[in-house]
Amino acid sequence: MQISIQVEAMLNVNWAMWKEMLPRLEETGFATIFRSDHFSLGNPPSTEALELITSMTYAAEHTRKVNIGSLVAPLSVRDPVMLARQAMSIDILSGGRMILGVGSGWNEEEHRHFGYNLGDMHTRMDRLAEGLEVMYRLMRSDEPLTFEGRFTHLHDARLVPRPERPTRLLVGGNGQKRTLPLAARYADIWNCLNETPERFQELSMHLDELLKAEGRTPGDVRRSIMKPLLCYRSQEELRSLLDANRRIGSTPHGSDEEILARLARMDCFLGGPDEVIRYMEGYADAGVEEFVIQWYGLHDLRSLDVFADEVIPHFIGK
Questions:
Q1: Residue 317 reports pLDDT greater than 80
Q2: Left, alpha or beta for 257 (phi > 0: left; psi -120 to 50: alpha)?
Q3: What does the domain layout of the chain look like in residue ranges?
Q4: Which CATH superfamily includes the segment(s) 2-315?
Q5: Which of 130, 200, 241, 263 has a 20 to 30 Å separation from 248 between CA atoms?
């Protein structure tokens, strides 16, 4: 099982931090550095936040071996044609390391602040389905595309330049009625969000059946999960992580107990290296091929040493 990381760059991450963070993340041995795609937090917005595409372009030029990608870019904000074009360009720039993860969008406050129409759940899923079809066809076919949809209208459209191999598509979500069928049709990677190993296995088995119905095989789609997780070796390291979490929000404050309670509400797993390894092994046994850590230690880069020294090596070659 590979281990990757998602950076929530809306949590007071600025350019200086991103530049410092990238080489550390690559050296740690993560398979992929994923980025969320959000505006600032707060009401009104007040946290620093890095825009996805520019930060991925920088990462393409300032890393050498680690994959980079979005987890996920919401099609409620992103135009699928331009997003496909940008992802293909970053893929070429990075030498084939870009993964384009897309989703339907969910943050109502964010859309209201910046004037985007999120829509009801049916609209969101229709927009995602149409956007995925458009991106898939633009990215996988050399033939010009004419398309008349509800959200997108194209006439003899073709994106160039093109990477040597098609840019990988990731579909994120747990919905059995709409999301998993879309993953079965279009995805190279499926990302499940914050489920138990047992529930992940159930959803993965359902995806197997959907893939067969599409004329694909279960091995055509890589299985991944994203979970919030923090690892520490001592009480001093735990206090440092809790202090780092005080700097996440727009109004940093809170006792250790309040921060621990907030992390518990987010279903964040906290533990020492041995506990984390046992926890992650449960997901490997359930068929997870890539465990993506939703990392809330952004403001304590020393915490990466725990993964580099004691967690990632355990899974290499397994």
A1: no
A2: alpha
A3: 2-315
A4: Luciferase-like domain (3.20.20.30)
A5: 200
